[in-house]
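R.M. (postdoc): so does anyone remember the format we settled on? I'll just put the structure tokens first.
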């Protein structure tokens, strides 16, 4: 028997649907690194076909005036915490953790910028993961911003747990102070 050609070949019934144009091949990054970034990018499905500009804008907005606590304000105050927590709310802790894992390294940014400067097609010639890292590479102190935003996102839960622990400790101290058995034992120890 003869095997049919791939794609159904012939009448068109059952023929494969036309494929979308392939994304540009990886040009600068090692393939495993590009694959890791591509996997991470799949978590940004609601951010559009090219999430780089939107993610960059969300991260860049974290340090703008009016979007975080003012300089000189106690960052642990409820007002400052609420103000900073509202900045960049589209980036939840899961997204921030992913971004920290794939944040571009200085040598990657340098290589990507060099490639874009040399290629007539510029950034369009890069693969989606490379374009994403190039986009993020334009942000100063990227990992500092991501770490700070992650801390701000997790702060309410940590502060709540600390408040509960302090309340439990206070209650335990109150119970110990009020215990007649412990008072009797302390009095007996003092008489010795």
């Amino acid at each position: 028997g003869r095997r049919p050609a791939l794609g159904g070949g012939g009448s068109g019934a059952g023929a494969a649907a036309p494929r979308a144009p392939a994304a540009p091949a990886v040009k600068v990054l090692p393939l495993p690194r590009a694959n890791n970034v591509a996997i991470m990018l799949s978590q940004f499905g609601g951010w559009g076909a090219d999430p780089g500009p939107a993610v960059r804008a969300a991260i860049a907005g974290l340090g703008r005036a009016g979007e975080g606590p003012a300089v000189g304000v106690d960052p642990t105050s409820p007002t400052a915490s609420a103000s900073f927590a509202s900045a960049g709310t589209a980036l939840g802790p899961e997204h921030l953790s992913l971004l920290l894992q794939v944040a571009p390294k200085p040598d990657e940014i340098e290589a990507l910028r060099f490639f874009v400067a040399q290629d007539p097609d510029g950034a369009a010639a890069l693969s989606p993961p490379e374009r994403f890292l190039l986009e993020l590479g334009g942000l100063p102190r990227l990992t500092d911003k991501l770490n700070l935003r992650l801390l701000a996102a997790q702060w309410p839960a940590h502060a709540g747990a600390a408040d509960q622990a302090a309340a439990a400790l206070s209650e335990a101290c109150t119970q110990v102070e009020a215990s007649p058995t412990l008072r009797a034992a302390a009095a007996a120890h003092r008489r010795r």
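R.M.: ...and that's the designed sequence above, right after the tokens. Also worth knowing: The longest helix spans residues 142-178. Residues 3-12, 63-77, 79-89 have pLDDT under 50 and may be disordered.
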